[in-house]
Every structure is written in structure tokens, then in C-alpha cells.
Amino acid sequence: MLSFQELYDSYAVDVYRFAHWLAGDRFEAEDITSDTFIRAWTHSSPIRTETLKAYLFTIARNLYLEKLRKEKRQATLDDRHPDPAPGPAEVAEAHGQLRWIGSFLQSLPEVDRAAFVLRVQGELSYAEIARVLDLSLAASKVKVHRVRKKLLVMRLDEEVD
Question: Whole-structure pTM over 0.90, yes or no?
């Protein structure tokens, strides 16, 4: 009975060469070779080939074919149809910007904040904002404009820092 080391030393070069010709890749051949000897050593049923070398080649070929079947079931992803959803970095940045805008808006007087939110979020006209907040049309326009201007100035200051 051969020891594992004797088995490996006797046939590893031949199995590796065979696996390399099958796979065409050095790293894949190394994987197939090591898996071949593990399977041969742990397999308990009798060998059904003429020689031990043929038995090892059969295992190596079956491992290679198994790898091909697995690869066939896997679809490669391409960039022709990228996911339109924002990635984790964009989501994190958007959340950070929302928190920053939220804290900025909380620092404003309530009537200014309400005018801005009604215009930007509620998409109300200036006339509707004036009615909701009981302001003149000109005052509603001025309040929204001033908030936008403050927001722009603060944003530019933040980018400079």
C-alpha cells in the first residue's frame, strides 16, 4: 500500500501536466492536481481502471469537466445594462447631504423654512405659498430666494473648506 506522499511523488507531475493541457491555466492545473490527490486518497470504493495513473487522470478530467459545467451555469455580467440605482457611496453621500440640508433648514426662521419647503418639496407656486403663509406675493418670492441664496453660499463655503 502506497503512502500519500509516495502516491503524490510518483504521479503529481503527470497529473499536473495533464490538467494543464486540459485547463490551459497554471493555477487551475494546480487546483485540479491537488483536488485529484485528495479525492483519490479519500475515495473508499475500488479502482476501476487498469492502472493507478489512469485512475488519477480520470479524476483530474472529471474535476475539469465539473468546473466547466459550473462555469456554464454562471452568466458573466457586462456593463451594457448597468444598474441605474445609486451605489452605496452615492447613497451615503445623499444621506449626508440630506442631513446637512435638514440642519441648515432648522436654523432658519419658521416662515422662511416653510416658504422654501413649500416651493421646493411641495412644488407650490409663489401665489399659493403667499396664500398658505399669509404673505404678499413679493414676500413669498423674496423668502424663497433668500433661502436659496443662503444655501448656495453655505454650500460653496463648505466646498472650499
Answer: no
